[in-house]
Task: inverse folding
């Protein structure tokens, strides 16, 4: 976890990749770090770090205010120069909406916008996320 804040961008990227993989299998292991991770989500500039955080954060047990912070940060990621960051931000927002149905109308509109105006990766992911929500 400490390496996520390290000076070496390669080490940060590898640490983020490892933490994301752990969170996919055992998300509760990162719950005790959620305050720090939410802070990092808001301040991270490195593309690789951002896309991994966009995947990790929605897997945490978040309170309503924490979910709001995550939503705001992920919405900011939609303006990133990286299509990958934007795509994972959409996915993260959809995941947050799964745990908080009140977010769904807003997230649904973002997904619909991405279907029409996003990059090819964003359009494809947004369509998939909308289809999953209909299931």
Result:
């Amino acid at each position: 976890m400490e390496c996520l804040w390290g000076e070496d961008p390669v080490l940060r990227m590898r640490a983020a990749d490892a933490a994301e993989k752990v969170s996919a299998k055992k998300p509760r292991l990162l719950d005790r770090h959620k305050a720090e991770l939410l802070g990092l989500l808001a301040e991270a500039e490195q593309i690789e770090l951002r896309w991994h955080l966009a995947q990790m954060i929605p897997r945490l047990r978040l309170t309503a205010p924490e979910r709001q912070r995550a939503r705001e940060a992920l919405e900011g990621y939609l303006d990133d120069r990286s299509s990958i960051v934007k795509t994972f931000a959409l996915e993260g927002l959809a995941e947050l909406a799964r745990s908080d149905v009140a977010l769904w109308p807003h997230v649904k509109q973002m997904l619909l916008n991405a279907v029409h105006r996003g990059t090819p990766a964003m359009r494809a992911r947004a369509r998939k996320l909308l289809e999953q929500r209909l299931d």
